[in-house]
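Review form for a predicted model. The reviewer records the input and the model, then writes brief findings.
Reviewer: anonymous (R2)
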Amino acid sequence: MISGVIPSILIVVTAAAPLVKPASYSDNHSKYRLDGKSVSIEKVPDQQGINNILINNATIRNLNKIDEIKMLNDGWDGKNAAAFDNTLLDKIRSLVLSLDAQPEIFPLADGRIQLEYELEDGSYLEFHIDLTEESKVFMLDAQGKPSQATIKSCTESINQLVKKFYGREF
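Model under review:
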């Protein structure tokens, strides 16, 4: 378990595979609630069958955060930041539904979305996600030494780096 994360109830939700777009997400379900019974995600079968997705409190929190970002209008930063592209938000939803460890999510005024992880020792990992195939990665180790990289903007690459950051599998 990740330090500082409270265990949550896991609900198995079915969705189409592979997750290229946010399976089962509907814009008229603007909130995801964990009430012990259900969340606002539906079954979407495909020709190859149905895969399970585990939804926990952190995932639901992030899906709600994405919905909040979707509501930001032009000038949301008090300056000239544009509203966020729905295609980018769909990409972020898909990532959130597929990540092994949930990040904190922040909108950036330049139109990208930031995913970040932090450890108690001060280590820090940050991804800047946009509509391109690559993501910028910024890291800070426990001694404060910064580093940067560019990786493929896909679940596998992000999960691999996050596992390395935490030093273990989930």
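Findings: The first helix runs from residue 57 to 70.
Further findings: The first strand starts at residue 11 and ends at 15.
Recommendation: see findings above.
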